[in-house]
Structures are given as C-alpha cells and as structure tokens.
Design goal:
By secondary structure, this protein is mainly α. The chain has one domain (2-209). It has helices at residues 2-27, 35-56, 73-79, 83-93, 103-123, 130-146, 163-183, 189-209. The termini are far apart.
C-alpha cells in the first residue's frame, strides 16, 4: 500500500512540475482566460501530492506506533522491531526462490534491507537535516490546508510547496529497501520518475496544442439537431 502511495506521489509531482514548466512558460506575460481553470488543476495536484505523502508518513504522536493501524513508514518500521514479526518476514523470504538454495541469503537480506530503511528514516530526524523541515512542511500543509483549519491557532510553519518534491526524493531510498524486505520486489523508482516526467510533458504539450474533440458518445435522438 505504501508503494502505491509513492507511485501516486511520483505521478502527481511530475504532472505539477511539467505543468509549471510548460504551461507556466506559455502563460508568462499573457492575459489568458483559461488560466483560471489551469490554476484549479494545479491546486488539485498539490492537494493530491500532500495526501499521498501524508499517508506515507502518517502517525499519531499521542499513541504508541506499534498500536496504530496505518500503512506508513514510521508505523511499519515500529512493527518490525518485534522479533516475531521480523521472523515472519524472514520465513516469507525463504520462499521467494524455492529450490534455488537462496533461503539463508534471502532471510539475511530482509534484516539488511530493514536496517537500511531504518537508518535512512532516522537520518531525516538528525539535527540540520533538510528532511526535518520538509516533514514539518508536510504536517503544516495537512493541518492548515487539507485535514482542517484551526481558527484559534496561528500557523507555526508557512508551507512551501518546493519542500514536497524534495521530501518525495528523500522517501524513495527508504521505501526501496523496505519494499524489498517485505515483498521481495526491488522497485525501480528512478525509471518511474523518468517515465512519469515524459508522460506529464506529453500531456501538457498536447493540452497547449489543442487536442481534437473526441466524437460524442451520446447518440443523437431522431429529429434532434
């Protein structure tokens, strides 16, 4: 589930970035009536990216992580601190390549990959790491723009959209080994970033070029023009 949210964030971020670069350059210095609708689309893309990233990093501070039913990085890493849970995934890993003699290697890979993901997660919280500011931005967006608006609390952090793509890039090195440990699948997020960018650029260039209208799917009634 976390990987699905990562893929969604990659695709949405690519659409937003390409829209800014391609359509934004086209609109520069012009009074463009369609800009109103374009800006609504961009705001919707930002909201979608915020929601995907919030799901990836979701947790409640007032409740122990291992008691939270959330498919998120901090909760999953907390659950994996339990020895029985770790043994379960090691046993699963021994079945990845049946009959090929990789049982012990795969079980060790689970421990190694979880340790890799945990070290990168903990690095985000080190003093001076940009990731801390990026996570603060994400929570500020959630609290002031998406989940609710608190009328009696002044915003402590002014959300900066530029932090979200940076947080996404910092997420990939955590998710890649974590997904490998839990599923045995090594995701190629780098290729996904490139392909999502190409798809987004193709969409916005077609948008500016003006795609021909699609034929109506509603059959005309007899006698109607």
């Amino acid at each position: 589930m976390i990987v699905s949210d990562v893929k969604a964030a990659i695709q949405v971020d690519a659409m937003h970035k390409a829209g800014n670069e391609i359509v934004g350059a086209f609109m520069l210095g012009k009074a463009w009536y369609e800009a109103h609708g374009y800006n609504i689309v961009l705001r919707s893309l930002i909201t979608a990216e915020i929601l995907a990233l919030n799901r990836i990093y979701d947790w409640r501070e007032r409740r122990p992580l291992h008691q939270q039913n959330k498919a998120s990085i901090p909760v999953v890493l907390a659950l994996l601190e339990d020895d029985d849970t770790l043994v379960h995934f090691q046993d699963e890993a021994r079945l990845w390549n049946p009959g090929m003699g990789f049982e012990d290697h795969n079980a060790a890979l689970v421990v190694e990959s979880i340790g890799d993901a945990r070290s990168k997660w903990e690095a985000l919280w080190q003093p001076g790491h940009d990731g801390r500011a990026h996570l603060d931005t994400l929570r500020a967006y959630r609290d002031s723009r998406v989940a609710h608006v608190l009328v009696d609390v002044l915003p402590g952090v002014i959300p900066q959209y530029s932090h979200l793509p940076l947080l996404l890039l910092e997420t990939l090195p955590i998710i890649k080994p974590l997904a490998l440990a839990l599923t045995g699948i090594e995701h190629d997020f780098e290729s996904m970033l490139r392909e999502s960018s190409r798809q987004a650029e193709a969409f916005w260039r077609s948008f500016l070029a003006g795609a021909p209208p699609a034929p109506s799917l509603i059959p005309r009634l007899a006698g109607c023009s």
